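Sequence in, structure out. Go.
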Amino acid sequence: LLHGPFQFHAIAFMYKLSQLLGVPDHGVNTTTVRLAAAISGSVIVGLPYLLRDYLGRVTALLACFLLAISPSMLYYSRFAREDIYMACFTLLLVVAIGRYVHDRKGGWLVVAALAFALSYATKEATFLSIAVFGSFFVAALIWEVGVKISVRSRFRSKSAYARFLPKTGALPALI
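Output:
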């Protein structure tokens, strides 16, 4: 009861949908309470295919297959708990950012923002996920900027190297 409200709203939506479809007991039973979690677990299985530009087609399909037969994914996607929603939204966030970097389409940024908001509305561990992914993206940004700015271009002339050279003025063999 101390996590975000997403799980409760998702389960209530499934109850209402089941009630409208005429499920006995006004749509409230052990099957309908687990439907939202099962759907999230099923979505997780297909998400790696959207990363095929980075992983390769065969590897992405293999990742989908391994997630489909994973005992852990099956275990967590059959309970009415927040863990499977968090996993789904976190993977969706990674996929959306990866697709945005590849395609540069603004719709993927909207999906990433939606995944982040839903993840935060599910569980407070979102801050840890953002710290992990954020540190990676900061390191990647520093790497990209570092590649564009050569270290040697910072030195203006050969005289700038003089303080690192031996007194003879000859360049060391390793340079």
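Check: The chain has a mean pLDDT of 87. The chain has eight helices and no strands.
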